[in-house]
Amino acid sequence: MRIGEIAALVGVTTRAIRHYHHVGLLPEPERRPNGYRAYSVRDAVLLARVRRLTELGLSLDEVRDVLADDAGRELADVLEELDADLARQQAEIGERRRRLAVLLAAPPGEAEPLSPALAGLLAKAPPTASPSAAKDREHLTLLDATGFGGEELYAALGPLAADPAVLALYERLDELADAAADDPRIPALAAELIAAVPDEVFAAVPAEGAVVPGFKEALLAEFAPAQAEVVRRVMEAFMERGRG
């Protein structure tokens, strides 16, 4: 293959290929008598590997390290890994399209970037003007967008979302908006919130942890001091029981 052909096959530009040659990521192939580079199937596989790794966010130096580890592998092994990468990418695209379908089906002005499972969960919650309940909805939406939700977790949360008694707990959390971080109401409210969470919810927490890295700090910063202390205790219970 000539450079234009391999570029079209892999989906990169000829300029990118020349840059990969320049920085040593892609070895220069042999040239034909007419001076044109002659690329092989292995060159195409290597180029596809470079493209996929850069799409995943690796720097060129990191890509070079990965390729160095691949040097002694059989071509079939590398092809199988590329195929698995493409399958994962295809699944991700499918999930995005399903979410888009939910947005397209929603009435104008009501569309939110929610997975169907989370949309079903939130539909079970009774209407409320509670600011704390609204924040909880926003936090679930963020976790859903980052992939830390899931149908199992949302199914477990279903009875909790539909329970009117939970609204009373949200309202008690609202009442702490102007309270100090050592308010005597904090321990009891935190304990009741933790007790209200079904065991199935803790069991459905992903194995990698109950919270996205950095999420806990960002979430607590949105609350007043007393509210943040309640939420901190609840989150610590999630992290502890989620690990169990």
TrEMBL record:
<dbReference type="GO" id="GO:0003677">
    <property type="term" value="F:DNA binding"/>
</dbReference>
<dbReference type="Pfam" id="PF13411">
    <property type="entry name" value="MerR_1"/>
</dbReference>
<feature type="domain" description="HTH merR-type">
    <location>
        <begin position="1"/>
        <end position="69"/>
    </location>
</feature>
<dbReference type="InterPro" id="IPR009061">
    <property type="entry name" value="DNA-bd_dom_put_sf"/>
</dbReference>
<dbReference type="InterPro" id="IPR000551">
    <property type="entry name" value="MerR-type_HTH_dom"/>
</dbReference>
<dbReference type="InterPro" id="IPR047057">
    <property type="entry name" value="MerR_fam"/>
</dbReference>
<feature type="coiled-coil region">
    <location>
        <begin position="72"/>
        <end position="99"/>
    </location>
</feature>
<keyword id="KW-0238">DNA-binding</keyword>
<keyword id="KW-0175">Coiled coil</keyword>
<protein>
    <submittedName>
        <fullName>MerR family transcriptional regulator</fullName>
    </submittedName>
</protein>
<dbReference type="GO" id="GO:0003700">
    <property type="term" value="F:DNA-binding transcription factor activity"/>
</dbReference>
